[in-house]
Amino acid sequence: MTNCKNCNFQIEHNYCAQCGHAAQLKQIDKHYISHEIQHLIHFEKGIFFTIKELFIRPGETVRIFLREDRTKHMKPIAFLAITTVLLSLIGRYFNPEPKGLPLYWPYTNSYVKAIENWFGSHINYNYLSISFFAAAWIKLFFRKHNYSFYEIITLMCFLAGEMFVFYIFLIPFYNIFNYYALQSLAFIIAWFYPALAIGQFFNEKKIQNYIKGFFGVFLGYTTASVIKIVIGLIIYYAITFF
Q: Is 176 or 199 the better-scoring residue by pLDDT?
């Protein structure tokens, strides 16, 4: 017998009965490398399958993941992390003109403008901030449904990741075609894809669910925008008066 190198528990067989750690690590050889490659291929199949399903049936896909089967899809945080990194890399490589979408009310404060311009040129962080506040509104609108706030966050993680996939395909064309036309297309997708997915997630047969999904996204966008303005004003007055 030997002691486990992870928890120091006595090991009688091949694995520690306390923590499951192997008594002896396998040597890295061709079989180990082959096993790692198989895991990588499975990962790629998982991400492509997730992208396809979220494109075809987004709400149903997330509902299945939450309540029925989690073996075929990528985990939401991993999916969001991968698509965020890919979007950042694509954005830096193609470097589309960094002009954020304007707010629907005028403002002149330079700090507010700076914050809005930063989020406008980092659409992944902008959409993540909107998604968080949208999740809160969606939880409020659909409070009678048996879904926790964390499950709604999971829904929004999947939708945000899929939105980033849309942007990944759009960004290379920003400097080829009309910038504002593609920006408008991205804006429309950002409004209607989540509304469609949310309505389908809760009950695709009820029109009011799609409407509530749309307003959840709208209020998430509005809340995020107001908070940006408030932060900009706080910075301005803190620097001015203190």
A: 199
The answer to whether the beta carbons of residues 190 and 163 sit under 8 Å apart is yes
Spell out a b/e string for 110-127, using b for 16 or more CB atoms within 10 Å of the CB, else e. ebbeebbeebbbbbbebb
Alpha-carbon span 47 to 197, nearest angstrom: 18
Q: Residue 15's closest CA among 25, 109, 80, 202?
A: 25
Beta strands in the chain (DSSP E): 2-3, 10-11
SS3 category, 2: strand
| Pair 101, 191: CB distance under 8 Å | no
- The pLDDT score that the predictor gives to residue 40 is 56
Angle, CA of 148, 215 and 142, to the nearest 5°: 25
Does the pLDDT of residue 21 top 80, yes or no?
Answer: no
Distances (CA, A) of 189 to 55, 164, 170, 183: 12, 11, 11, 10
Report yes or no: 220 and 137 within 8 Å, Cβ to Cβ.
Answer: yes
pLDDT tens for residues 74-86? 888 888 888 988 8
Q: Kind and range of the H or E element at 45?
A: helix 30-56
Rounded to the nearest integer, the mean pLDDT of the chain is 82
